């Protein structure tokens, strides 16, 4: 059962944490490289603002983005802005998302995201939570995967292992956290079964493409190469 109201509270908490952290930066810091290849921190912030607006589009029945080219252009245009403009855009876009989710609606309906992907409307708040939390880490300003809320780590690992389940390029794989939790994924490629063990934060980092998996223990074969998200 997806609890969209609970997830909206988590989005607000994560957004407030992000805004407080970004507010401590300066204009020079915004122009510096993020942890995402080819993107400055300004690119990450512009993407976060536009993603909020894109999810409003999804909830209101419009295409998430006009086009992939328009999405990329909006990020490039917004990246060089000074800190005060970035913060204002983050706050205003977050408020637009909050208002759109406060409107009474059928949360059980199916909505369309990018590239023909569909999902239940009730999962949109979780998707926004993922964007805010992971991109906060991507900024490289002191918020690490180890700082992510435990609920987020567990649910995102669950989401990503489901996403890669049956993937033709991923052998059957068991993902096991040190606290005893485990997930299965892959199964569409030859080889395996592979067991990947380690701290939950490192497992999430590998699944989400944020870490190379070198801190993980692998049995039954090589660490599977995961497709890009």
From TrEMBL:
**Protein name (record):** Maleylpyruvate isomerase family mycothiol-dependent enzyme
Q: Which UniProt keywords apply?
A: Isomerase
Q: Which InterPro entries match?
A: DinB/YfiT-like, Maleyloyr_isom, MDMPI_C-term_domain, MDMPI_metal-binding, SCP2_sterol-bd_dom_sf
Any Pfam family matching the protein: MDMPI_C
Entry keyword annotation includes Isomerase: yes
Which ranges carry the MDMPI C-terminal domain?
Answer: 147-227
Provide the coiled-coil residue spans: none
Q: Name one GO molecular function term.
A: isomerase activity
Annotated ranges, domain Mycothiol-dependent maleylpyruvate isomerase metal-binding: 12-139
Name the segments for region: Disordered. 173-192
